[in-house]
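re: ur question from earlier - yeah i can do the single chain one, its not a big deal. heres the input i used so u can compare w yours
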Amino acid sequence: MQDLDKYADVIVRVGLNLQAGQRLIIRGDLQTVALVRAVARSAYQSGARLVDVIWGDEQLMLVRAQEAPRNSFDEVPTWLPQAMLGYLEAGDALLSIHAATPTLLAGQDPEVISTMMRANARASKPVSELVQRNASAWTVIAFPTPGWAAQVCPDLPPDQQMEQLWQAIATACRLDAPDPVVAWQRHVQELDARSAYMNERRYQALVYRGPGTDLTVGLADGHLWAGGGSVSERGQAFVPNLPTDEIFSLPHAQRVEGVLRSSRPLNYGGNLIDDFTLRFAQGRVTDLSASVGEETLRRLVATDEGSARLGEVALVPVSSPVARTGLLFANTLFDENAASHLAFGNGYRFCIEGGSDLTDEAFAAAGGNLSIVHVDFMLGSAELDIDGLNADGSTEPVMRAGEWAFAV
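and the output i got, formated as tokens:
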């Protein structure tokens, strides 16, 4: 992992855009020690006042699912969200490192997993609300682990799996550029230009057509497209996801009609959901099926009132660096950057004009979705076309065969 220091610098200088005097709190698994230390070094070199770490261990989730009392899975540690809340409310930065084994919880009781996920989502709601309104700078990244590498590169010998996954992450995160920080700055500028184009067009809806997909996704009144970089409520520019090749906005929670077929598997709570079809009417999932993980999918969309509706619409070209690796990462952070996608659950308030100042009731009235979950899933492919629907009923090409249909 010879690019570890480059990765840390991109995380600190581009992802978080950490400012001198700012504190940083990191959520990392025990398997991410090397990266956490590299990030801490880069952060202090950038003037951080304090770097704090909340350590986790994914294996403890498996042990709990196997051994804990059956009536205990709705309990969560209250100190953990409180710690993150304190940092975010003070304007400090949050880094979350994904290092999960995609199939860790495969074969465990779906009700147990669903209960744990709901409990964690409820406990983390105050943190999620601050993150989703960009109250402070935050970034999500990933780090290779043996369990994840074995899932992504099953045909390689174990000693080569980690190196292959690391090289794919380095490619996706542009670490192979002569100056990765400069490469990221240029990339974010392009995504900003595409967002500006979509904001100028002001489409009423997006129309998706492809194999198994004939879907119209209405866009919320006053919706805003964003992409690449964001700006916190304190005026700090940052990049929430590394990698990122998407521009995204707010669908209208009541105006989604038709059917879609997924193009990539979804990893939810350590369980894979694959080859699934969703049918929508008046914005809500009315029917679904899946070749793998159907029960997990049904429990996901039944989490609360908003989990069966959409909270995000995102556009990604199939020529993105993630897609060019040719790998299925079984990790939403990466797979969502290989294909256009949608998300069940809560909508981003900064994706609507004046959204950060809206009450829950006003946000919902404008078409925003409210939920304790936000789960991305992919439907984009080289066979998918997307059109923008104008107020007069005419359409314009937005994507053709999975690629951008407009220049910036």
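DSSP finds 13 helices and 20 strands in the chain. not sure if urs matches, ping me
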